[in-house]
Design a protein that fits this description.
This protein is α+β, with helices and mostly antiparallel strands and about 625 residues long. About 40% of the residues lie in helices and about 15% in strands.
């Protein structure tokens, strides 16, 4: 009988079913070395390994049963998981011990396993370090570039393990206060000190008035602080006791609100060593009796008590509680499809050996003979990027049907449950402001390639290309020269470069900035004259005319275009491009030019870049000038 479509099933198909391997990190579990070493006789038997093995709790029947249960659970999957057990973790995050790895080194190759089961107290309860190594591993895993799934498996109290892990992944609240807030807190602290000197107040009671659960709740990224301050000011909920305490100081207005920040600072002083200065991106979490999980942009971890629980069921339960968006489900399914049938698809994409032999020839000989070595290297890089782009497109083309079918399942389940999945985005499109913001960001997503800075955290060197949008002083431009004419070794009939072969002439169209994209109507954006870019955290509309001019004279298709000369092979370095701005003014017998450095803001997708290239052709066309207007 076919399995009913439910959200749980969608989550299982996207995240659980693709799992093929698991790595268990537990210092009390046996490793392969210990198992085989126990059967080796004579001088080849390692006494060190034997001693380590005998000191572990897996030698006890209860723990051995626990290990066996875990292994059975993972082996019973279809297909059964590949299982490995690891315990050789150094107690230092920077130093390596013989035969073991630091937490950071371990995290670097964890992508070889699909799932990590992490014992929280690796160093043993007797050390008193309370999960320090596990937190370092967790931080390293969640900073890894691969999306990782982690189950923190522990005998410790779950809330405590969760709070300690969260502190290890966030900056202190104190470090986030601005100078004005700190100044106000310090003034209030002086007032409190005077009260204490008069035995009218005792800051030592802070942990009776604010507990860790309330502190963590106030740090939640989804409006945690705003709600906490609101509850505190109204003396309700988890902050009622704190509010009552503040009344002893007879504070009014902004002073009372400042007391909340003072309390947060005072409370976290005891834990300042736990926080990090390099938090992972997009940290979020849920701490409830039913479920405890945290996630970042690079991983997801749930916390499970050691016992009879089915770990995969617990992981699925936590993933369902997270409520991944339909977009996230589709993305996970896409990764699974590439992984599942990637080799077959790759083989199909590589069948045309003649075409691919020709491709490799373009790598061996990327340009004409006589080009400088640097330009040949640049051309080779450019050819390789083109090849990767075509291969990626081919792979996507071959798996997109399966992913689209999964998308239909998502819609079907959403339909049966009353279309609730849109709430997973936590964006209220019925709210006018949210809807306008969503429209701007969606339009930017449609027309622009993603920023490498956003994805990789760094800006790579790249060649100027058609569709690059750049800012020259206070003016905006889009490169409208075909990519092939910007590559090294290409000659331009209208431009003689002289001795400097690194110069690249190109045409750019001037764009008018629309600060408020909401001014743009359907008439504007469907005219093909506009694009959207992100600049300084805001979405800007850029059009070949201003919206007002576009409405009053809609038939005018001509654009303002200009020729620039890019220097240094038209290479964009750290988002900057050096160019010569030509001026039609003779300097002796030479055309004047001014050297400028422009800021490259975005790159349009190919079809949008092509639209601007065509606009140049329309502008230089003289068709229509011979017509006679009926109004004359």
């Amino acid at each position: 009988m076919a399995e009913a479509n439910t959200f749980n099933n969608l989550v299982r198909e996207a995240f659980i079913s693709p799992l093929r391997s698991v790595l268990i990190i537990d210092d009390q579990y046996p490793t392969w070395e210990e198992i085989f070493n126990s059967k080796i006789a004579g001088e080849d038997n390692s006494r060190q390994i034997e001693a380590r093995s005998k000191s572990k709790k897996w030698q006890e029947s209860v723990i051995a049963s626990e290990v066996m249960k875990l292994i059975k659970e993972f082996r019973s999957q279809n297909p059964g998981f590949i299982i490995d057990i690891h315990d050789g973790v150094s107690s230092s995050s920077t130093e390596k011990t013989a035969g073991s790895e630091t937490p950071g080194q371990l995290a670097d190759h964890l992508h070889q396993s699909d799932l990590l089961i992490l014992d929280y107290n690796l160093e043993g309860a007797e050390t008193g370090t309370g999960g320090d190594i596990a937190r370092k591993i967790l931080s390293s895993v969640l900073d890894n570039q691969h999306f990782n799934l982690v189950v923190v498996h522990t005998s410790e109290e779950l809330d405590k393990a969760m709070y300690e892990s969260l502190r290890a992944l966030m900056r202190s609240r104190t470090s986030l206060y601005d100078a004005e807030c700190i100044a106000q807190i310090n003034i209030l602290d002086d007032i409190i000190t005077e009260k204490e000197n008069a035995d009218e107040f005792d800051r030592g009671l802070i942990e009776e008035k604010l507990d860790m659960a309330s502190y963590i709740q106030a740090r939640h990224p989804d409006g945690g602080q705003e709600k906490a301050i609101s509850d505190f000011m109204q003396g309700r909920g988890a902050y009622a006791s704190l509010a009552e305490w503040s009344n002893e100081l007879s504070l009014i207005g902004s002073q009372k609100k400042c007391f909340f920040h003072w309390a947060m600072r005072t409370f976290e002083k005891k834990y300042l060593a736990d926080f990090t200065e390099n938090p992972p991106k997009d940290l979020s979490w849920n701490v409830s009796d039913a479920c405890k999980w945290l996630r970042t942009s690079r991983g997801f971890a749930c916390f499970v008590k050691k016992g009879p629980e089915n770990l995969l069921a617990e992981l699925e339960h936590a993933l369902v509680d997270w409520k991944p968006t339909p977009s996230r489900l589709l993305s996970a399914k896409y990764r699974d499809e590439i992984s599942r049938i990637g080799a077959e698809v790759e083989d199909a994409s590589l069948k045309n050996k003649y075409a691919l032999a020709k491709f490799y020839e373009t790598i061996l000989k990327p340009g004409k003979e006589g080009l400088p070595h640097e330009q040949l290297q640049l051309l080779r890089h450019y050819n390789l990027k083109d090849h990767v782009s075509r291969q990626s497109e081919m792979l996507s083309f071959l798996v997109e049907e399966n992913v689209a079918d999964f998308g239909k399942k998502i819609f079907s389940v959403d339909e049966e449950t009353g279309f609730t999945f849109k709430d997973h985005y936590r964006v209220n499109l019925d709210n006018d402001a949210d809807n306008k913001k969503a429209i701007s960001q969606y339009n930017r997503y449609v027309c622009c390639l993603p920023s490498r800075m956003d994805v990789l955290g760094k800006v790579n060197t790249e060649q100027l290309d058609s569709g690059h949008v750049f800012k020259l002083d206070d003016t905006w431009w889009v490169c409208a020269t075909p990519a092939c004419d910007l590559q090294p070794g290409q000659s331009t009939i209208a431009f003689k470069k002289g001795n400097d072969v690194s110069l690249r002439p190109f045409t750019a169209i001037r764009l008018q900035k629309v600060t408020n994209p909401n001014e743009l109507t359907a008439h504007h954006i469907n005219s093909g004259s506009y694009c959207y870019v992100e600049y300084d955290g805001n979405i800007l509309g850029l059009g070949i005319k201003s919206p007002k001019e576009d409405s009053s004279t809609p038939a005018i298709q001509k654009v303002e275009w200009r020729t620039f000369v890019a220097q240094q092979g038209a290479v964009i370095q750290d988002g900057k491009l050096s160019l010569l701005e030509l001026q039609l003014e003779l300097d002796g017998l030479k055309i004047k030019s001014e050297k400028k450095e422009v800021e490259v803001i975005a790159k349009l997708r190919y079809e949008y870049a092509l639209n601007y290239i065509q606009r140049v052709g329309v502008s230089v066309s003289r068709i229509g000038l011979g017509y006679v207007s009926p109004s004359l």
